[in-house]
C-alpha cells in the first residue's frame, strides 16, 4: 500500500500542476506565480530552482525532450507558455503566445512535440516551438489534451465532450460524461481513460465504446496519472487520491486538503500530488522511501487537524454513529474509514494496517461553510448538491445560487433529470434546508470560472428564507415515476463475473458463449437511448434463464436488466410471451425472486433478498407506465400488496422502501387516470375491480404510515431520519391522490383508522413537504 514519503512546503498557494522528469527530478507550479524544480538529495527532495516569469497563476506544466535536451514547459493565466532549458534556468528559452486565455493544461507529445489546452476553447499542437495545428471546435474550455502513439490527439472539454483529432481535423467524438472533462491518459495503443467533474472515470476504446465507468470519488475528479504497473491514479475535490486496478478502487489515500488538483507518477512507482493547501505530497510503496517517524506524525497531525465542511456532516445520521469504544475493534481492511461520535463532535478515523491502529484524519463540524464556489457545466454556483435518485447509479447534480428562487432551481432540475413533477416541493425544501446563509465572494479578475475563486472573500450573507408563505392545496400526482437510470454495460460485466464463478461452482447453470452474446446484445441495445426498443429483434430467454435458474444471490443483475427493459415500451407480445412466458405475473415474481420466502413472522429479510425485492419493485413500477403492465398488475394485485405488507413490517432498507413507495405512487396515478376516463384507458377493466384494488392499495399505504408511527412510539423518538421523511412524503402524496379520487370515502377511512391524526402529528414533528397541502385538502 502507498504511504506518505515526503511533504514539500515551499509554495504559498494552491499547487496546480506537477510533472515528473525522472526518479530524481520533478516540477511543481502554483497560484503563487512560481514554478519549482525539485531534485533528490540523498533520501529527500530539495528545491533546486524557483522560477518566476508568469504574471499570474501558473496552472500547467510538463517536460519535453527536444533534440536530445530536456525542457520544462509551463503555462499560466497570463495566456503565455514559457519553455525553459533544464541546463540553464536563468530565463525562459522560448515564450509562446498563441492562446487568448488561461493555459490550463500541457502534455508531452512525441518526437519533441507538446500539446496545450486553454480556456479560449482551443488546443494547440506545438512542434519545434511553433504552432503545428490549432484545434478548434469545442464549445468551452479545453481542460485536457494528449497525443496518442499513432499521432492523433485527444482533447477533453468543459462542454463534456472528448474529441479525437488527426492532422488538425476532428475525426471522432466521445460522449458519456455528464460534466466537464478534466483529464485524459492513454492506457494502450487503442484505449484511454478520462476523468470529469461528474465524479467518474471512464475507460474507452478508440472506436468510441465505453468499456468501464469507475465510481468512488465524491466530487470533481481533477487529475489522473498512470503507474508503470498499469494502475490508474486519480485525485479529486473530496480529499482523496485513489488507486484503481482492474476497474476496482484498491486504495484510498486521504489528504489534509480539500482540492487535490494534480498528480503524476515517477518511474520508480512513487506518486506526487499537488493540493490546495500549497503543499506537494509524495507517496511510496518502497520501504526505503517511506517517510521517517516525524514525517508520518506530521502527516497524521495535518489530517487530524483538518476540518471537513458542513455538507459532510449534514449527510450523516450522527445519532447512529458508534462511540469511541468502536476504536477497540480492528479495521476490516487497510485504509477503511470510520466515523466516531465523541461527545458533540464527529471524528473521522482511518485504519492503518501496518501500524494496527486507527489514525485520526479529521473532525467533521457544522461550523465551517463552503470555502469556494462550486462548478457545474462550466458555471459557478454557491451549491452543487449530489442527488441520489437510484442506488448504485450515477448521482445527478442539482446546482443552486442563493440569489435565485429555490423553486426555480428545483423545476430546472426536474426538467433536466426527467423525473416526476410531484417532487417539486420536496426538492425545493431540500434546497432551502441545505443552503442556509452563504457568503458571496467578491469580484476578482483572476477568478477561475470553472473551478471557483482562488480564495474565498466573504462579503454579504443571504439568510435562509421560506418561499412558501401560504397553504396550498394538493393538486395531485402528475405523470408516472420511471425508474430507467442504469448502466447496462456495468450490469453485463457483473453477469460475466458471476457466470465465471458458476462455471466452477455449478457448470450446468452457467450460460454458454452464445447465450452470453445474446445477453450482451440486449445490454448494447439498452445502452443506446436512441434505439426504438419495441422495433428491435431480440430474445429474452437467456435473461429469464439467469433470473429464474441461477442461485438466488446471483440473480439480481438479470432482474436489473429486466427493470431497464420494462422502462421501454416493449409491447404486450414480448411482455407476455418473453418475460411471463405465458404465465402470470405472480408466478414470474415467485420463480425469479421468491419474495414469498418471508411470509411467516419469524422470517428475516437477508441483504440479498432486499436487493432482489428492490429490483422487482422497480420493474413493477415501470410496468405501470404501460397499458399491458397495468392490466397484468390489476390481475395480480392482491398477492403483490400482500408481499409489500410483509416487507413493510420488517423494516426494509432505504432502496427497497423507495422502490415500494414509487410503485404505490404509480399505482395511485394509474387509478386516478382510470377514474377520470375509464373507457379511454381500459375498457376491459371493471369499475368494481378497480375499487377493490384501490382499497387494498390505500390500506397498504395507510398501514405503512401507522407502522412507522408505531415504531417511533416504541422507541420514544419524535424525530425522523431523512429516509423516513422521504418515504412518508411519498406515502402522504398517495393519500392525497386518493382523497382527490373520492374525498368522502377515503376521508372516512382515514378517520376510522386514525390516519389523519397521525399525519397531523407528523406535521408537528417533521418537515414533510406534502403535509400542509394534503392537510389543506382534508380540511
TrEMBL record:
Location(s), subcellular: Cytoplasm
Name assigned to this protein: PFU domain-containing protein
The keyword Repeat is annotated on this UniProt entry: yes
GO cellular component, one term: nucleus
CDD domains reported in the protein's UniProt record: WD40
One GO BP annotation of this record: ubiquitin recycling
Segments traversing the membrane: none
InterPro entries named in the record: ARM-like, PFU, PFU_sf, PUL_dom, WD40/YVTN_repeat-like_dom_sf, WD40_repeat_CS, WD40_repeat_dom_sf, WD40_rpt
Species classification: Eukaryota, Fungi, Fungi incertae sedis, Zoopagomycota, Kickxellomycotina
Superkingdom of the source species: Eukaryota
Keyword Cell division included in the entry's annotation: no
Domain PFU: from-to ranges: 350-445
